[in-house]
From TrEMBL:
Pfam families: UDPGT. The keyword Metal-binding does not apply. One of its GO terms (molecular function) is quercetin 7-O-glucosyltransferase activity. GO terms for biological process: glycoside biosynthetic process. This is UDP-glucose:flavonoid 3-O-glucosyltransferase. The lineage of its organism: Eukaryota, Viridiplantae, Streptophyta, Embryophyta, Tracheophyta. Belongs to the UDP-glycosyltransferase family. PANTHER family: GLUCOSYL/GLUCURONOSYL TRANSFERASES, UDP-GLYCOSYLTRANSFERASE 85A1-RELATED. It comes from Ipomoea nil (Japanese morning glory). The keyword rRNA-binding does not apply. InterPro entries: UDP_glucos_trans. SUPFAM superfamilies: UDP-Glycosyltransferase/glycogen phosphorylase.
Length: 457
């Protein structure tokens, strides 16, 4: 496909699990357009991690570092520094890459956060701008309704002057279970011009100008929300779960790095053992010390096998003697091969912050969730898990306490409700697998994306 060689500028957002799914999309597009070249603009740290020991898309991707927003030699402290350097840092790196190759970019593929992708595309004669939203349809939809949600919150003050955050968003298609208070903090931010909320708000304003928005989700997971999105954006391509689509497309399974022997440990659990609990809070989060203690106490009381991905700075808050007392049934590692862990038949529950990738991975492998959302889209994802898909529970009270965590573990692992949640998640897993089959909705959406790009490449 693609008669002439197209040079695509790929603009990644370097934090959390943003750049990896974008690189995965690049690899999928490269397979469809073997003559296309991709320049991957990202910060130095993220590029080093992503490209270390790898040659994505058989050498068709070249990584370019963009300026971090810091004084030379200083480490980046906050995302804000990086955001404040945008878009100038990308613009400079792009101009240098164009000067190096002597050609202008013929397409912009960006993380949706990078709202200026459309402006850069317009400056090059209206080449396409394709944006990847790395989370669910439910959260991007929420952002597109920012002005509405803010006006609703402002119009309903309570007696003490505070906004009524428990009001449900009944009029937004597919969002009737969500309350205003569960919206991402950026939507309700006092100052929409502050760096992070400003970036997200600009994104909501600019995305309708994108030629296409690509989602790592699948049609049957969020049908009403997605249909509404399709009415607001030029094109929506729902091409996930990417991990399942990639697995379906790659006959050779990837090499799994399991430095801490999580998989042999799961294999070694006796066949009669109760299902194991897997705990992880994504790429960067560690629960606060009191919640680590509460989690540990609940796990010790439950005595189900557990595998906990916890960074060393979290381990130091575990109760004294906990590791020794639980060594027969528990394992703590700084990083686990999560996809393989969740696909292990011995795992019965996933305690999570409900980042989108974690949520989708749990669905893809049919594991029920126990949700403790922290920020961003995580509240929305958790609400969908508990009340829309009914595949897990939120921890009551919004944070881990020993009693509420134990209660959630008992519901998921040992109750009739738990059985129903399991049935529901297995059904959704089936739908996810259907979506990535040759005639499935995600496969078709990916083919349509390729068809759209074929007109430009
Ligand atoms: C941000 O999400 P996070 O990166 O914090 O969390 P996830 O979206 O759940 O992604 C975590 C990924 O890291 C992997 C795991 C996921 O693919 O399989 N992982 C692992 O392999 N081993 C471990 O021990 C721990 C994690 C943000 F915080 C979220 O709110 C957003 O939804 C998300 C996407 O935009 O980005």
């Amino acid at each position: 496909m693609g008669s002439s060689e197209c040079h695509v500028a790929v603009l990644a957002f370097p934090f959390a699990t943003h750049a990896a799914p974008l690189l995965s999309l690049v690899e999928q597009l490269s397979a469809a357009f073997p003559s296309a070249r991709f320049s991957f603009f990202n910060n130095h740290d993220s590029n080093s991690g992503l490209f270390r020991g790898r040659n994505p898309a058989a050498g068709k991707v070249k990584a370019y570092d963009v300026w971090d927003g810091t004084v030379a030699g200083e480490a980046l402290v906050t995302h804000e520094e990086f955001i404040m350097a945008m878009p100038g840092n990308y613009v400079k790196a792009i101009a240098e890459a164009e000067a190096e190759t002597g050609t202008k970019f013929g397409c912009f593929l960006t993380d949706a956060f990078l709202w200026f992708g459309g402006d850069l595309a317009a400056e090059r004669g209206g080449v396409p701008w394709i944006a990847l939203w790395t989370a669910g349809a439910c959260s991007i939809s929420a952002h597109l309704y920012t002005d509405f949600v803010r006006s609703l919150a402002a119009a309903t003050p309570t007696a003490n002057g505070k906004h009524r955050l428990d009001q449900k968003l009944k009029v937004i298609p597919g969002m009737s279970e969500l309350s205003i208070g569960e919206m991402p903090g950026e939507i309700l931010a006092k100052d929409l011009q502050a760096p992070f909320p400003g970036m997200i708000y600009n994104m909501a304003l600019k995305l309708p100008g994108a030629n296409a928005v690509v989602l790592n989700s699948f049609q049957n997971l969020e049908p009403t929300v997605t249909d509404d999105l399709r009415s607001k954006l030029q094109k929506v391509f729902n091409i996930g779960p990417m991990i399942l689509r990639q697995a379906a497309a790659t006959p050779k399974p990837p090499i799994i790095s399991d430095d801490h022997n999580c998989l042999p440990w799961l294999d070694s659990l006796p066949p009669a053992s109760p299902p194991a609990v897997y705990l992880s809070f994504g790429s960067g989060l560690t629960p606060p010390p009191d919640e680590i203690v509460a989690l540990a106490e609940a796990l010790e009381a439950k005595r189900a096998p557990f595998l906990w991905s916890l960074k060393p700075h979290g381990v130091k808050h575990l109760p004294e003697g906990f590791l020794e007392r639980t060594k027969e049934f528990g394992k703590i590692v700084p990083w686990a091969p999560q996809v393989q862990v969740l696909s292990h038949p011995g795992v019965g529950a996933f305690v999570t912050h409900c980042g989108w990738n974690s949520t989708l991975e749990a669905i893809s492998f049919g594991v029920c969730l126990i949700c403790r959302p922290f920020y961003g889209d995580q509240q929305i994802n958790s609400r969908f898990v508990e009340s829309v898909w009914e595949i897990g529970v939120k921890v009551e009270g919004g944070k881990f306490t020993k009693d509420e965590t134990l209660k959630a573990l008992n519901v998921v692992l040992d109750s009739d409700r738990g059985k129903l949640l399991k049935e529901n998640v297995v059904k959704l897993k089936g739908e996810a697998m259907e979506a990535v089959k040759p005639n499935g909705s995600s496969t078709k959406d990916f083919q349509e994306l390729v068809h759209l790009l074929n007109g430009y490449f």
